[in-house]
UniProtKB/TrEMBL annotation:
The chain crosses the membrane at residues 12-31, 43-62, 83-105, 117-136, 143-165, 185-207, 219-241, 253-274, 294-313, 319-341, 373-394. This is Amino acid transporter transmembrane domain-containing protein. One of its GO terms (cellular component) is plasma membrane. InterPro entries: Amino_acid_transport_2. It is found in: Cell inner membrane. It comes from Candidatus Wolfebacteria bacterium RIFOXYB1_FULL_54_12. It is a multi-pass membrane protein.
Length: 396
């Protein structure tokens, strides 16, 4: 395998594939509310924020000698048993509501593919298909994820080009700024950029393939930033082609684009959701069995039954769900990661050689003495997001 492909393309592609997902489909709607200028600023700022928090999380993993842990394990090791227990519930809640958001969005895609289906039947059909694959062992590889990321980016590019060639430019379709709604995109954008679950697997790939230290850092930065460009292309294309921008962004295209465009987007969205749902479901099942020691049959029942139960209990607002998951739950993840990292840099050194020139007992870092004010800014952003999204939920 060529050096550049193995050491740069694959790790970056793996992260991109795990970042770009359901959140993308909400961006045209929330940016329509705030305006194009805040949308561009959000994409740039949160791309950088995601790169920093992914690097910080990767640095924690590199400094930890126990390499098979997941998020609660790292938090427990550096912040104590109570924090570890809290982080376990945090992960469970985050993943559970993420699955519920996937169910809500799946109904929109299936309705386009099969218009006669009611939302409930469409949701249940997707749930059955996705739940079955949760409990089938599927080997995910960096090559597979890089290919799927390439297909996703290609479809977004084709959509943007199609809009540019087939639709006249209409400035009214591109609102510049709506000041009163400028904070609306916070949760959905954070949801769309965070790839926490991919970082342990990415570090494991780097360790297995002996990827140089610098290449891993570049891959995390590129993998975190590149989605911003394609999100922008997607938002602009949807705005330019949609008479009305819908919360799922695809339904609003009905009647304004040929069916093959709708079909391509629906299939892409459905397959992406299916793959993501299965992966997140496996993470929940592992947490229940290995972290909480719940027996496999009960863990299976909780993993399979909780998301549709939440859906049927009324959690059917896609934008509200990803706003809460992104703005509140992922923000708490970010705060815990930062506090754990502050402890990790004092007590541990990397357990594996990640430099072509390796000096024993030297403390290496992939974030190279990040300025304290940047860390404080990240904490402020996460804390502000929690307060805003909680206030928004209470006033809905």
């Amino acid at each position: 395998m060529p050096y550049f492909f193995k050491n740069s393309v694959l790790p970056a592609g793996f992260l991109i594939a795990n970042i770009i997902g359901a959140g993308m489909f909400a961006l045209p709607f929330v940016f329509r509310q705030s305006g194009l200028m805040p949308g561009v600023l959000y994409l740039g700022f949160f791309g950088i924020l995601a790169a920093l928090i992914h690097l910080i999380y990767a640095d924690i993993i590199l400094r930890t000698r126990e390499t098979r842990q997941q998020f609660p394990g790292y938090i427990r090791q550096y912040l104590g048993e109570n924090a570890g227990m809290f982080s376990g519930f945090l992960v469970f809640t985050t993943l559970l509501f993420t699955l519920t958001a996937y169910l809500v969005l799946s109904a929109s895609f299936l309705h386009i593919l099969i218009p006669t289906l009611s939302p409930i039947i469409a949701m249940l059909l997707f749930w059955v298909l996705a739940t079955v694959t949760i409990f089938i062992t599927i080997k995910r590889t960096a090559v597979f994820d890089t290919v799927t990321a390439g297909i996703t980016l290609a479809v977004i590019g084709v959509l943007f080009i199609y809009w540019g060639l087939m639709f006249p430019f209409d400035s009214d379709a591109f609102p510049v700024l709506t000041a009163k709604n400028v904070l609306v995109p916070f949760g959905p954008v954070l949801f769309s950029f965070i790839g926490f679950s991919a970082i342990p697997a990415l570090v494991a790939y780097v360790r297995k393939e002996s990827v140089p230290f610098a290449n891993m850092k570049k891959a995390i930065v590129v993998g975190s930033l590149m989605p911003a460009l394609f999100y922008f292309l997607y938002v602009v294309a949807v705005w330019g082609m949609s008479p009305v921008v819908s919360p799922d962004s695809v339904s609003g295209l009905i009647g304004s684009v040929p069916f093959f465009i709708l079909l391509a987007l629906s299939i892409l969205g459905f397959v992406s959701l299916w793959d993501s749902y299965s992966g997140v479901g496996r993470d929940i099942n592992k947490l229940l069995e290995y972290e909480w020691r719940i027996t496999p049959p009960i863990a299976l029942a909780i993993t399979a039954g909780a998301p549709p139960a939440l859906y049927l209990f009324g959690f059917q607002d896609f934008i509200a769900l990803i706003s809460a998951v992104g703005g509140i739950l992922f923000s708490i993840w970010g705060i815990l990661i930062i506090f754990a990292w502050k402890k990790a840099i004092k007590v541990s050194i990397p357990s594996v050689k990640f430099s072509e020139i390796y000096i024993p007992d030297r403390v290496y870092s992939i974030i190279n003495d990040i300025p304290p004010f940047v860390i404080d800014l990240l904490l402020l952003v996460f804390a502000g997001g929690i307060v805003y999204e909680l206030a928004s939920l209470l006033t809905r």
